[in-house]
Each structure stands twice: as C-alpha cells, then as structure tokens.
Design brief:
Length: about 110
C-alpha cells in the first residue's frame, strides 16, 4: 500500500521587531536519504545534493511506495506517513519544463 509522506516541520519565531516576534512560522525540514539512513537538514549543502539518493524537501508531500514507507516508519517518521488505499493518477510536471520551456516548445518559423 502506498503512503503520502510529509517531512517534519518546526516553528520558527518571526523577525526581531515587536510585532513579528509574536508570530511563529512553520518551516519544513528536508529529509536526506543516503543508503538506508536518513538525516534532517534545515539548509541543504552542495554535499547533500551530490551524495543523496533521495531528498524529501520540507513543506511538500510525496507519494512513496510500500517499501520506502516501511523504511521511513522504521527510521521514526511513522507519524508523518498517511496510508493511501488507491493512489491518485499522477502527472509529473518538472519545473524546468513548465516554468522555463526549452526552445523546442516555442513556435518555429518555417
């Protein structure tokens, strides 16, 4: 059974001025998978991008398969998993293709 995984968050206090100090913002924590181990990162480094097998960016939800869901649960992230009986039809749109289309997508003059 697939799962929807949402990485953990933490509450950060607002800015230092009097008004914003009273507000708290939920900030997503990225989860970096290397092999079978997971580490949390608030700010990702170039090394994280180079050595990671998977990076679950904070503030987003991911559809993971049963095996990955069981690994996440064994690593202590079971509270962040929601089982899905039948996964929705997914359409993957990569930001590089939708926000910055290549020249092949523009009309060409003959």
């Amino acid at each position: 059974m697939p799962y929807v995984f949402t990485p953990p968050t933490y509450k950060r206090m607002g800015y230092d001025d009097t008004w914003h100090r009273r507000t708290h913002i939920d900030v997503g924590i990225a989860l970096v998978k290397r092999g079978l181990s997971y580490t949390q990162a608030v700010e990702l480094t170039a090394e994280d991008y180079d050595t990671a097998d998977i990076i679950y960016m904070g503030g987003r939800s991911y559809l993971v398969d049963n095996d990955e869901g069981e690994r996440l649960e064994a690593a202590g992230y079971g509270a962040h998993l929601v089982p899905v009986e039948s996964p929705p039809a997914l359409v993957l749109i990569y930001p590089s293709e939708s926000l910055f289309p290549g020249l092949a997508l523009y009309p060409q003059e003959l």
